[in-house]
Structures are given as structure tokens and as C-alpha cells.
Amino acid sequence: MNSRLAIVALAAFVAALSVRAEEAPAKPEKPKLAHGQMLKYGEKIVFSPCRDRSYIEFQDASGDGSVLRGLDEVGLSQGKKLYVELLGILDGNLLKAERINLAKTEGHCQLPGGRSEIWRAGGNEPGWVLAFGDEVVQVKRLGQADLVFPAAPLTLAPGAASYGVAKDGHRLELRFEQQACRDTMADMITGWTASVTVDGQVLKGCAWQR
Q: What is the CB neighbour count within 10 angstroms for residue 109?
């Protein structure tokens, strides 16, 4: 009799655990970068992932409409085809975009930068490009010799990332801030501004994650 009661009690305990597991809320999905092409048809906006011929719908999940405003700045509402990199969550047949990493008119799909290029930044007047990787930081400036510095993890703060290093008599300081940056010459918008100082020369531009 005691053994039967024990079995019944164990079954009830297991059933209670199962109910609790079902009732436990699922962990929120972490936003990821979605790479693809975007176009507006009438009132509908569609997104096509890179290397995929399927189409899914788009939703601005920023909370303040900033994603859609940024996309419109580079021609979405004018019917232009965009290459976009959006930080968001895929929910069935819907991409819920929270932030823009990069949006460019008539751009082509780009592979992630990998270890050699975690971040990229650039600007105009004068023209410059910076590639920040796991091991080195490369800086190219119009009319000047290229520079290569050793890399280390960026110093992170809410909405910002910074780094400083010196090598062979040269000094590099950089700061990325999380706010929309428009490059009119490249007809693109990114999610970060960039301020880079090389040997006292201050370079301003846009940055994005790779």
C-alpha cells in the first residue's frame, strides 16, 4: 500500500513540474543582424534576406519610428531598392527591426567582416577609412601613408565604444557613438557616428558593425 502511495505521489510531483515548465515564460529572443534587400510596394515594405529568394514583411520595432525614418532618408519611400543591415528579431514571416546598422541605396549583399573587420568607419573631406579587427586596426587617409595599429577590445559604455593606442611614434584615438549617421556622398545611413583622431588630425564620419 505504501509503495502504491509513493508511486502516486511521484506521478503527481512530475505532473506538477510539467505544468510549471509550461507556465514558465520563454526567454526573450536576442536581436540579431539581418542582411538583405528592402523595397516598398505601395504601403507594404518587404525584406529579402541575402542569398534567399523569399520575402518577409517588415515592422519598425524601434519604439520611436527611427528605423523607418532612417530608411526613408536613403530613398525607401521613393521606391529605391536598398541594401540593409538591421538589428532585429525574426518572428515567423515578420522582421521586427529595432535599429539600423547600415542602409545603402542600390547596395549589394556584404559578407560579415569576420575577425579581420569587426567594425568599419569612414568619412569624407578628407576621405578616410578605418577597419577595426581582432588583431589590428588599419587606417587609410587620402594622400597619406596607411597606418596599422595593434587592436584590443574596445572600451564599452552605454551607447558608445572607444579605443586608444600608440605605435612607432603614431597615436590613434577613436570613439563610436550609437546615433544615426548620414553619409550623403555614399547615399547611406549607419547606426553609429565616428570620431577618429590620428596624430592630432580629427576625422569625422560614420561607423557600423561588420
A: 14
Q: Does position 124 have pLDDT exceeding 50, yes or no?
A: yes
**Is residue 6 classed exposed, middle or buried when 0-12, 13-18 and 19+ CB atoms within 10 A define those classes?**
exposed
Which residue, 125, 144, 129, is CA-closest to 210?
A: 129
Please state whether the predicted TM-score (pTM) of the whole model is above 0.85.
Answer: no
Q: Evaluate the CA torsion angle 196, 197, 199, 200 in order and state its sign.
A: positive
Distance in angstroms (rounded) separating the CA atoms of residues 104 and 31: 21
Pairing of strands 181-183, 170-177: unpaired
**Whose CA is closest to 173, among 128, 139, 134, 210?**
139
- Cα-trace Rg, the chain: 24
